[in-house]
């Protein structure tokens, strides 16, 4: 209950910051960037609180509360993606296209390497094996449109689905077994997410 109250209050504050001077500054790219940046931060802070509450409800073995909080958490991920999608500087596709652009006159291998590195830097910080063994997984994560929706959200949905099964007394898959089966192999191995 306090979690929801805090989240709504933070959201209202962020929206007020955005609305207070909107008519005067609505054509200012810098202002719109700042509003999106503040809203993204408020949403991300709220998501962190929901994540903690989700874990607490899981540890308390409260499936109903876990489900309700998990749904709100996933909604916040969608909101982050929507807010960051309003600004070109928060688009994962921009990052990837810039990296690929550095290899414009290069051979195909080099172009693919630049793209792989751009994706790896913001997800696994190397190959999946290096990330899992080296402890650098998500080291340089970003809250960018496309990345939150197509990379982070499916991972959280997978985690939530497995915890839900566990709370229902069903068999839970190991990460290793999930990563060998579709559709999770994409999440685990290929860093597949949309360009924008």
Kindly report how far apart the N and C termini lie: 35 Å
- Total helix count? 10
Looking at the structure, what is the overall shape? Answer: flat
Low-confidence stretches at least 5 residues in length (pLDDT < 50)?
Answer: 1-8, 182-187, 189-196
Question: How much strand?
Answer: under 5%
Describe the protein's architecture and organization:
The structure is a single chain. This protein has helices spanning 2-20, 22-25, 29-59, 63-84, 92-101, 108-121, 128-134, 147-167, 175-178, 184-190. The two termini are 35 Å apart. The longest helix has 31 residues, at 29-59. The protein has 196 residues and is mostly helical. The model is unreliable at 1-8, 182-187 and 189-196 (pLDDT under 50). It has 10 helices and no strands. The chain is flat and about 55 Å long. Helix 1 packs antiparallel against helix 3.
Topology:
Elements: H1 2-20, H2 22-25, H3 29-59, H4 63-84, H5 92-101, H6 108-121, H7 128-134, H8 147-167, H9 175-178, H10 184-190
Helix pairs in contact: 1-3, 3-4, 4-8, 5-6
């Amino acid at each position: 209950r306090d979690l929801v109250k805090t989240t709504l209050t933070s959201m209202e504050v962020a929206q007020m910051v955005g609305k207070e001077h909107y008519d005067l500054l609505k054509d200012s790219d810098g202002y719109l960037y700042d509003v999106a940046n503040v809203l993204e931060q408020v949403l991300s802070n709220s998501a962190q609180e929901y994540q903690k509450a989700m874990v607490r409800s899981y540890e308390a073995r409260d499936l109903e509360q876990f489900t309700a909080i998990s749904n709100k958490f996933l909604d916040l991920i969608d909101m982050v993606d929507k807010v960051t999608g309003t600004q070109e500087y928060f688009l994962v596709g921009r990052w990837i296209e810039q990296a690929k652009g550095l290899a414009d006159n290069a051979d195909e291998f080099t172009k693919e390497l630049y793209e792989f590195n751009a994706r790896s830097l913001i997800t696994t910080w190397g190959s999946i094996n290096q990330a899992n063994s080296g402890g650098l997984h998500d080291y340089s994560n970003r809250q960018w449109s496309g990345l939150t929706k197509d990379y982070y959200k499916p991972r959280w949905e997978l985690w939530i689905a497995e915890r839900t099964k566990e709370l229902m007394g069903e068999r839970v898959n190991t990460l290793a077994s999930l990563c060998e089966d579709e559709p999770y192999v994409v999440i685990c191995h290929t860093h597949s997410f949309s360009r924008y």
